[in-house]
Amino acid sequence: MLETLLDVASWTLIIVGGSFGIIGGIGVLRMPDFFSRIHPAGMTDTMFAPCMLLALILQSDTAIVTIKLLFILFFLLVTSPTSSHALAKAALHGGVRPSAEEAD
Amino acid sequence: MIAAAFIAILVTMTLAIVRALLGPTVYDRILAVNMFGTKTVLLIATLSFFSDRPDVIDIALAYALINFIGVIAVLKFFEYGELGHPGKRR
Fold first, then answer.
1. Which residues does B76 contact at the CB level (< 8 Å), separation at least 6?
2. Residues 54 through 93 of chain A touching chain B, CB cutoff 8 Å
3. Rounded to 5 degrees, what angle do the CA atoms B20, B23, B25 make?
4. Is the Cβ pair A44, B75 closer than 8 Å?
5. Does B54 sit within 8 Å of A28, measured CB to CB?
6. For A22, which residue in chain B has the nearest alpha carbon?
7. Angle between the N-to-C axes of helices A63-94 and B26-50, in degrees from 0 to 180, rounded to the nearest 10
8. How many angstroms separate the CA of residue B63 from the nearest CA in chain A?
9. What is the pTM (predicted TM-score) of this model?
10. What is the dihedral of CA B23, B77, B61, A52, to 10 degrees?
């Protein structure tokens, strides 16, 4: 009974996280400008990775595996906004400008 | 279940690689490679569950940190032109 409940929860998290990841991947390809592409890439880091790691945590057998997966989750959640900010700042200093429409 | 996770991760990695090949500026490529790196961490973690070896997760933990430091080092190189710069803008 408990294993069935954990399996259903893991399947739900994998399907939801997987759809976020694929939508983020399509978004990185279709966005028109560099600065607007940072958002889908960050979306895969924020929604796909934690959903997948939580699904794996629900499936783990021992406590040490759960603790290591929680460490990975914590590092990904802390370092991904930092690298997005560093990338946007470096691009702005490097001369990339957002493409804006002309004012009417 | 783990197979579905593998398929989702591999499709996202393929889309990131296409952006790394297409991207007109170098920053697009850095963004795509950073995304590819975090998906690699997820791939190694699911691989450890797929093959019933709980000690492969340590590789994923180490690579999560290496990926972040690598992206920051590449960005510093592109902003200052060298890796030993004290950090003031030219």
1. B83, B85
2. 55-56, 59-62, 64-65, 68-69, 71-72, 75-76, 79-80, 82-83, 86-87, 90-91, 93
3. 120
4. no
5. no
6. B12
7. 170
8. 10
9. 0.90
10. -30
Round the CA-based radius of gyration of chain B to a whole number and report it: 16
- Could you list the pLDDT tens digit for every one of the 90 residues in chain B? 899 999 999 999 999 999 999 989 999 999 999 999 999 999 999 999 999 999 999 999 999 999 999 999 999 888 887 777 776 655
Phi, psi torsion values for A94, nearest 5 degrees: -85, -10
What is the predicted ipTM?
0.89
How distant, in Å, are the alpha carbons of A8, A12, A59 from that of A1?
11, 17, 14
* Token digits of residue B74: 């590449």
Question: Does the beta-carbon distance from A90 to B79 stay under 8 Å?
Answer: yes
